[in-house]
Amino acid sequence: MLKDNDAISENQLMQVLILTIMGVGVVSLPREVAEIWGASGWMLVILGGLLALVQALIITALAKRFPDRTFPEYSVDIAGKFIGTAVALLIAVYFMLVTVFQARIIGDVIKLFLLFDTPIEVIIVTIMAVVLYLVRNGIEPITRVAVIILPLLVFGAFLLLIPAFSGADFSNLLPLVPDNIPAVFRGITTISFSFLGYESLLLLIPFTAKPKHLNKTVSKAMVIVMLIYLVICIIVFIEFGVAETKSLIWPLFSLMKAVEIPGAFVERLEGIFLSLWVFAVFSTMMMTYFCAYFILGKVIGLKQPRILAVPLFPVIYILAMIPRNVVVVYEYLGYFTKTFGTLVAGIIPVIFLILAVIRKKRDAHG
Amino acid sequence: MSLYKRIRKTKRNSQEKTAKEVDRQNIQEIGMPADSSLDRNLDYFRQQLEDADDVVYREMVIGSRHDLRAVLMYVDGMVDKDLVNHQILKSLMLDIRQAYDSVQTLKEDMYRILVKCSITVGEISETQDLDQAILALLSGETLFLLDGYAVVLKIATRGWPSRGVEEPPTESVIRGPRDGFNETLRVNTTLIRRRIRDPRLKIKSLKIGQRSQTDVVIAYIKDVVDPNVLNEVKNRLKDIKIDGIFESGYIEQLIEDNWLSPFPQVQNTERPDEAAAALLEGRVAIIVDNTPFVLLVPTTLNSLFQSPEDYYERWLIASAIRVLRFIAGAYSLILPALYIAVTSFNPGIIPNRLVLSIAGSREGVPFPAYVEAIIMEVSLELLREAGVRLPGPIGQTIGIVGGLIIGQAAVQAGIVSPIMVIVVAITAIASFAIPSYNVAISFRILRFALILAAAFLGLYGLVLGLLAIIVHLATLKSFGVPYLPSFDKYNIKNFQDFVIRAPLMTMKQRPMFLEGRDKTRAQDERPEEKEAN
Amino acid sequence: MVKRMVLFFLVLAAILTTGCWDKIEIERRAFIQVIALDKIPEEERTDQNSRYVASFVFPNTAMLGAQGGEYGSGGGGEASVTISITGRTLSQCAYLMSTRLGRVVYFNQARIMLFGKELMKDRQLVRETVDKLARDFRLNRRMYVGVVDGMARDVLKVKPKVDQLIVGYLTGLFEDELDPARVRTMEAGEYLAAMREGGDLIMPKLTPYTDEVKVAGGAIIKDHRLIGWLGEQESVMSLLLEDEFDSGIFEVLYKDALVTYDVFDAKRKIKYEGEQNGWLKFTISVDVEGNLAEFVLGEELFDSKVIAHIEGLINKKIEKGTRDVLYKYQCHYKMDGIGLNEFLFKYHPRVWQRVKNNWEQVFCEALITVESDAKIKRIGMIK
């Protein structure tokens, strides 16, 4: 069993990966797919998931060449000191901004649904304080929290989503012909953004002790997330139909308002669902926050990157407070994923992998 | 971990500063060599043990020619007087006299003859260090000094008034052995040894406490224990610098990993069967003289939710009870906080009809729900504490008076709502269902923290509070072993002794969290299955 | 250590000084149970800008507390309170309600929402209310909605015979287990979705009397506006065509006596059969299963020929009734009340793409055949 050595096992890698991917995106995903492909949008989830899987495998291939070093350490080898450092810095900033978005969106949603009068600052600071408490301790406690949260989340979500099937109309999944076939390319990339989080593999893989079936593990995680997304989309579609789904900002929350548990043990589910969702967002934030300060620390050359965890806190907080309203947040988020997301999760790993292959850079036993 | 080291370091530094302490340590290490002159030895003893009037010096002359002077020393009350009188004094003074002449023909060293032929006591040992001899004397052994020999004979004659083996009051079970540890170290080790007759069961003793010189025993099974954990235990025990140990709680606090945590990182038990089971799991038991509480390390949260009874009942029942216990834990931790979060912040969750009766019952209550909860919880803790201090029958009366009468009166006076009384009462009952007292206490403390969190941010605050607890547990370690069971895989092996207790024949492996060498618990399949094959 | 203590006390001080923003004790809330919305009648309009009368019913928790019972068992003051507020917008009504009541209004536990006839006839007001209700996160999407023939608030004045609270009575009327065939049920979620998808739907109709409320028939909403009513029988037939029919009773005349057929299951299937002279052709088959509940005394029923004959009578009745409703939909209201558009969209998307811009006319011209297949499963204890 693993002890104080900051190493995780492959299975833990899978669990952390699943949790990192599932975050704020999942609540708006059904709307996004409905907007692009209408009733058959759920097929898009599979296609987008496959694209994300390919990208994740590219990152895995890159990380596997350097099994004991994290990205900022080998990026310099691959692309030279200046570019390597710059790219690593970019990735650190990327992770920091992802954390910012997570924090802001959870703040907005909690304020809207649970705490109408509480200042959003308090909501954001409190959850970030808990995240900070965790990430200071490094990757190992993070994975340990992940393995507690994941079954809780899956089990809880399962319980909450099952009642949604009662009285739902499966014909809402028809027709099987997409609304807008030419939009498929744009659609797939957009939906693959919902799977963002796999780029944390850049940092996770070096921590994995004695990986044997990395490709299999990563694929498994991605497929599991894909299936979960698929189930969620299908449930939302059969409950609401396409037209309704399109008009909901957070279809999953609306679903929770519409679902009723038989037996009236609990009247409204959204409070419980939001609590579970806080767990999900927390588990994404813990990973992105960790990636942000760890990569940043490595870029600067710190032996103990954890000392950066606290200074990063106010930065993230201030950035999270910048957007004026929820619409702007989502506009920024769309823009951010389109540019940064493509760059960090898609383009950079490909280029670095090609460079590494061409320049024959790899570590001895990689 | 780091915190623990830091504390240890500061402790060591402060000790090094005082020269006196260093001095005494030196004396103890070097010791005073015994002299061949009986008088000189006696002088040293008398000087060291000045004004210790419970030390008995029995001078005698051995042999018919009265030419061998000897002294028997013991501490009155700490020795078995029967043993001293009949097996030592009588042998030395009477029996030897009759056989003296024949003995002399043996042509051997007089001292050897006495030791070998005369003292009819099982356990004897020698020392040439007078300080060690004093230590032995104060531990209840009898010293025998013979003039002309620079050696002190220690005769194990310990015997003092002690409680018998009784049923442990803190961990009672319905099914299972009724014996419990008591205050005598030897009895305790015996109780364990009787359960594990394995030569690989090691019982290593050491002394802790500069003044108390308390006997402490580390028990483990050599090829089952995780060597890293064992080393860590030994090192931490060695590093303890304290004048006296009166209860294993001292040791617990001095060796635990994180002293800021509300969770106990060391398990204690009064039950020998539980200790023996822990040894078989590959854990280490620390037995301290003068206390029936034996420490078990490393500890996981999981093991604190287990009771030895779980293994004696059939697995289905045991599993059901264990699930119940986890529910009790959850209740005791979050119920009042959940009630506050739901009623004061998010009443949408409550079923339509219930919400009305809750609202109706709170009508006229002057305090907000969280104040109400804190008042009730504090009163309940008061009752509990008062009940512990008072003698048995009165304690029960307090429970009835406090619980029923005050509760009823408070509701009628409109100070608290009846539903809050129910919530608090369920919480209290649930917290008694947790088998480990110290976990129950930590849950009680955290319950207040969660009440505040829920009063601050409602359901969201409660969730964050729970997350913070999970995070804390995830960072916590007990002797290098994660406090939370860290499932590498979600497979059945990891769960078979966690929330449920799988059938014994399926539990073939020792717990995964310990790196023992002998991983297999049981190999054979059930006999019926074999026959079927 | 000192740092930690300071931090702890700072946090504690922050909590204590700022307080708990959202904490509202449960007895300070008014749990709205029924919402009734009306267009303000001209004679009551005091303020030029007032447009709505919103009536809210909430339980008198103080009285419930005194009784210690649930759902108001016992006398001593009214078990529930009804308050009517006039205002320009719904938000204003809710806001005024809070200020006037001195309690925090809580909508998440509402069970019933009723709309008055006049309100539903005003397209502008309907659209406003739909947007407001869909946007409001506090709204319970599982509450039942209905249109009242008259003023919606009149329903709240009804004194139920058995139930103490009007909400218990109304919920009972709508609830599934009691569902006596003719009752159409619609939840707020469905209502809002249908309204947003174009505004064509059929809603339950309520008629208030002095001590009871009748839930029967349907309100035809077309393009966000109430354009007419469906009678009881029409509503039942329409339910059959909409595939919403669960159970109910049909009577047919046999040998000068009324024979009662008790339906426990009904299924509808639509088949698109291509075009004929440019008109879309549909066949709707209705499969009904039920028992014979009443028959003519002395007549032999234990005979498959008799059964088949009665089944034929029932089929004729259903086919005629559905034809009548379809006629009303196609020729009178020009509105697709049975969900043919949805059927085409889902199962024949290409056809739908072609006709969707012209659907109203295409629907009215469509050739729709209804084929009923009633099955008598059991006939009771005597022959």
Explain the overall architecture:
The complex is a heterotrimer of chains A (366), B (533) and C (383). Chain A is mainly alpha-helical. Helices cover 72% and strands 0% of the residues of chain A. The mean pLDDT of chain A is 86. Helix content of chain B is 52%, strand content 11%. In chain B, the strands form 3 sheets. Chain B has a 5-stranded antiparallel beta sheet with strand order 1-2-4-5-3, sandwiched between helices. In chain B, strands 6-7-9-10-8 form a 5-stranded antiparallel beta sheet, sandwiched between helices. A two-stranded antiparallel ribbon of chain B has the order 11-12. In chain B, strand 11 (477-478) and strand 12 form a beta hairpin. In chain B, helix 8 (185-195) crosses helix 11 and helix 16 (369-389) crosses helix 18. Chain B starts with a helix and ends with a helix. With 383 residues, chain C is of the alpha/beta class. Chain C has 2 domains: 25-230, no CATH class; 232-383, 2-Layer Sandwich (GMP Synthetase, Chain A, domain 3), CATH 3.30.300.210. In chain C, 37% of the residues lie in helices and 30% in strands. Chain C has 13 helices and 14 strands. In chain C, helix 5 crosses helix 8 (188-196) and helix 11 packs across helix 12 (349-355). The model of chain C is unreliable at 67-75 (pLDDT under 50). Chain A binds chain B through residues 1-4, 9, 11-12, 110, 114-115, 118, 122-123, 126-127, 130, 133-134, 137, 141-145, 147-149, 151, 264-272, 274-275, 278-279, 282, and chain B through 1, 342, 345-346, 348-352, 355, 457-464, 467-468, 470-472, 474-475, 477, 480-482, 484, 486-490, 512-515.
Summarize the structure.
The complex is a heterotrimer of chains A (366), B (533) and C (383). With 533 residues, chain B is of the alpha+beta class. Chain B has helices spanning 2-17, 19-30, 38-48, 81-98, 100-104, 110-118, 130-138, 185-195, 227-238, 248-255, 272-281, 301-304, 309-312, 315-345, 352-362, 369-389, 392-412, 418-432, 437-475, 492-495, 527-532; strands spanning 55-62, 68-75, 124-127, 142-146, 152-155, 201-208, 214-221, 267-269, 284-288, 294-297, 477-478, 481-482.
Keywords:
heterotrimer, A: 366 residues, mainly alpha, Amino acid/polyamine transporter I, C: 383 residues, alpha/beta, GMP Synthetase, Chain A, domain 3, 2 domains, eight-stranded mixed sheet, four-stranded mixed sheet, 13 helices, globular
